[in-house]
Amino acid sequence: MITADLTTVEVAVQLRTDRWTVTKLIHRGELPGAYRLGAHAKRAGRGHWRIPQTAVDIYRRNHRHEAA
Question: Which helix (H) or strand (E) holds 66?
Fold first, then answer.
């Protein structure tokens, strides 16, 4: 089955945080494979992020102890 990559808002819901925190995780490299869409995606602050579900799953597995 093919699944679409997630938006920052969708990831925020899964991680029970806000989209700004998700963006910080992307910039810190904690959600590998995240990429930007849009005509001006390479410019700072432009484009919409997409994050693979596998990156979210790995992040959750690696940070499970912090939620306890």
Answer: helix 64-67
